[in-house]
Amino acid sequence: MEKNLPYIQVKDLPSKGLAYPENYNITYRPFTYGEVKQYSTSNISLQDRVKQLMEGINANFDKYSITLMDFLFIILLRRISTLGSTNLKLTYFCNGCREENTETIKLNNIEFKDLEVKKLPLVLKINEDERYEFTPLTVGDYIQLLDMKKDNDDIAVMAKQMRNMKYEDAYRVIANEYRPDVIEIYSEIDKKLNHGVKPVKFKCKKCQFENEVNLDTGGDSFLLDKFRSPQRPNSLRIVLDEGA
User: pTM of the predicted model, to two decimals?
Assistant: First the structure.
């Protein structure tokens, strides 16, 4: 049955395709009704949810080497192609007066950052003995981090992005770094490799303070939530309103 579903070629990826082979091709299909129901009710792990979401994506290379942020972008396209431009309701606390605000933004108004490099890998050469190569975090990397329960460990994430060294060795190198200038370069590399969701700006309804609200924190993405998500008990609550 799946072979009859329409597949759509992805163009204008946030990564600009820099992480992929020349003449790469990535396609996706809309969610089926069964998948929407399954994602709405299942209580599987985040790793298994990512794997399920990958089932609707094809590539002419190892699709688990798609960058995590490109993957989230494709999931956004899949949601829009299935459900139309549904609304995203979010609640945040104003940074000016701490008033709770609720705003609505359409999914097709969500924008991703472009990868801020001209080519990959990014190379950090400190001296003849210290040369490190970095590329963005991939879907496969993210699943491995989840398996290790290291997805919220910034050093682990950085180590996974170092490509010319084993993960364990990369983690040790980064964790034991003490030179201020090298530490600053690591932070700059991390920023340059980020091509996730752009923050959105809202004015507080009470004090008119302009707030910059981050919709995403890397892999902990609202785009990986169930199709009807409960409100999160924290300072930023995001709910996909599929009925709009």
Answer: 0.87
